[in-house]
Structure formats: structure tokens, C-alpha cells
Amino acid sequence: MKDIVSLLKKSAKNFDKISQTGKRLIPSTLMKKCGFKKEKGLPCKTILTDLLMLAFEKKGLYQKAGKDKEMNGNLKTYYRFLENAKHQWEKLLYEVAEKVVFEISKLTDHRRHVLVIDDSLYERPYGKRVELSAWQYDHVDHVCKKGFRFLTVGWADGFSFIPLMFRLVSSGKTQTVPEGYDKRTTAYRRRINALKKMTDSAIEFLGKAKSLGAQYVTCDSWFGNPKTIRQMKNLGYDVVSHIKSNYLFCFDNGLYKAKYIQKHLDRSKEWCNLIDKLLPENAPTDCYSRNN
């Protein structure tokens, strides 16, 4: 990051190259398609370009737009742009990421393309009035914290990582959508999606990403349950995942835990067909789970 900042300071041509790349990847027609519209004032394309350029500088939005006034608009213009609930950021990110992935895929045809699923804690400890905020279990500190689960799906080829889709997930058991929202609006759909199960949201994301041509899906043990793995297999993906220790799998006409299978498996011959053996097509996946 320091090298990028130093290069930008040396020559103004680098700023022009970045802005030209932004114009090519994010045309005005795409922004209108994703709900970015303004009746007057600075165009949405100019505001978004200014915000993207902040990632390559050491100054923040308040310092550059408020104190130094080095941007095209004032500080309130950018705040109103970021707070607009009609902007479909998820759709814009995927459309741009899809273009980037196709460009990179031309250069890395020999690599195996993978979709990565991961979730992290988006903590809001002091947000008592934050809508749909709920108690979430932090697997790092092993305590419950107030906030959201930040679900992310990205594309990787072993060298590059491109984020594709994201979603803030709340708890559907303790939270409900407040009344007063029009069910046709983006704001209502965003709140409905926040109350979905994280595994269901991940399967939805994987279905949208089929056009990228990835062969594998990698995830942690939270998504490594038999039902979710079977849904990923039905979408055409091979799954590389951690397995929880309290699940039993069908292997050699018996039910065994993953640790037992790992010890007795001949990896040189049978490792590639492990998932098909663990999850046969005709068997119900729910019967393989058991709580210790």
C-alpha cells in the first residue's frame, strides 16, 4: 500500500489510469441499473470515483472533503450518497467483480478457480438502536457480542482474490422486519435477506456465481454440514471443507466420524471420490448429523 501511495504522489498520470479503469469497469449505465441516480448536482459516477480514490491515499473523507476541500463536492454530498438506501451496492459489486474475474481468467487459464465462503463478526457494541442488530457468538474470543455476521463470497485462483458478494446477517429468531417498509423496495429486501440463515444465503450466492466457471468451493466447518455440502454438489461444485466432529458419515457400509475415516482412508486412490462415498445420492443427509 505504501508503494502505491508513493507512486501516486510522483505522477498524476497514475491517477488518470485508475480513473480510466474505473470508467471502463463501472460505466454510467451500470450505475443506473443498480439504482445510482441523481436529479441534480454532482453525477453519481464522479462521487463514486472520488470515494474509490480515497483507498489509494492516506487521507480520510472528513479530512479531504471537509478540511482540505480537495474533492469535487462538500462533505454532506458524499455522506448523503453513502446513506442512500436505494443504492444496490451488492449488485454493483458483483457486476464489477464479474468483469474483473473474466479479465484475470484470461491470464490464468492453467490455474484452478475456487469460490471462498467465509463469515466474520461485524461488531456494534455501542449501537443500541441499530436496526436488526443481535447477539452474535465470536469464535475467536468465545463470547457473545452485539452486531452482525458479515458473510462474504470471493473468487480466487491461488494468487488473486476478488470479493464477489457480501451480506450482513442477523438472527431470524430474535429479530423481525419493522413495519412501514414497502415490500417492493431495496430496503425491505435487504432486511429480509438479513434474517435468512447464513447457509441459505451462501447457497444463493453460489448459484449466482455459476457463470464464473469455478470448480471448487472452500469453506470452514460452519458450512461443512452434510446438507449444505449436498446442495453445493447439486450446483456442480466440488467442496473442500472442514468437517465438524459430531457428524457421522456413511463409509464402507457403516456410520463413522470424520477422524476415523481420515485414519483408514487410502488417500492415493480414494481421496478424490470421498465426497461421493460420504454423501450417497439416494440417502437423506439429515440422518448423518448427531449431537454429542
Tell me what you see in this structure:
By secondary structure, the protein is α/β, with parallel strands linked by helices. Among the domains are: 2-83, no CATH class; 89-110 and 119-214, no CATH class. The chain contains 13 helices and eight strands. The protein is globular.
Secondary structure: elements and pairs:
Layout: H1 2-10, H2 13-25, H3 28-33, H4 44-53, H5 61-67, H6 75-83, H7 89-105, E1 114-123, E2 134-138, E3 143-156, E4 161-169, H8 186-194, H9 198-208, E5 216-219, H10 226-234, E6 238-241, E7 248-250, E8 255-257, H11 258-264, H12 267-270, H13 274-278
Parallel strand pairs: 1-5, 5-6
Antiparallel strand pairs: 1-3, 2-3, 3-4, 7-8
